[in-house]
């Protein structure tokens, strides 16, 4: 496993986290309890911070990065991911804020300054352009993204269940040693 310190910032891990040996987690990265980082993920908190909430899973081949602070952008854009979030395979999240109970479909791209409220589905392959705000309780799809429809109660329930499923899978991997 490649956990790297960068300029004195070492990744911090909550209880019972899983980081696949092929993943790279570097710099100012914090993982909440029961979070999981799967194969070939790159999480690079080198020029700003990455925060990943409890029970959140980041799936294979995803890239997590940030935007540096500057005179034009004093805080830069950190990457903040809430609790019970499922980030599908091969996604790109860059300097954005995700609330709780979100599913990011495979291959989605979420750009700088985006804020996603709680309880949102983002369809596979969706591009969320910079500085957009995605309202709670909706499905967003497309390139560029469009608000498609309100989520069904069953879909909202699935958001939490998806995170639970990955906590269980992560526990299996940890038990294997």
Number of contiguous helices: 1
Quaternary structure of the protein: single chain
Main sheet overview: 12 strands, parallel
* CATH homologous group name: Hexapeptide repeat proteins
Q: What's the domain count?
A: 1
The mean pLDDT is 97
Protein name: Gamma carbonic anhydrase family protein
InterPro entries: Hexapep, LbH_gamma_CA-like, Transf_Hexapept/Carb_Anhydrase, Trimer_LpxA-like_sf
Organism: Alteromonas salexigens
Pfam families: Hexapep (PF00132)
Brief description of this entry?
The protein has 1 helix and 20 strands.
Question: What labels describe this entry?
Answer:
UDP N-Acetylglucosamine Acyltransferase, domain 1, eight-stranded mixed beta sheet, Hexapep, mainly beta, Trimer_LpxA-like_sf, twelve-stranded parallel beta sheet, 14% helix, 177 residues, Gamma carbonic anhydrase family protein, LbH_gamma_CA-like
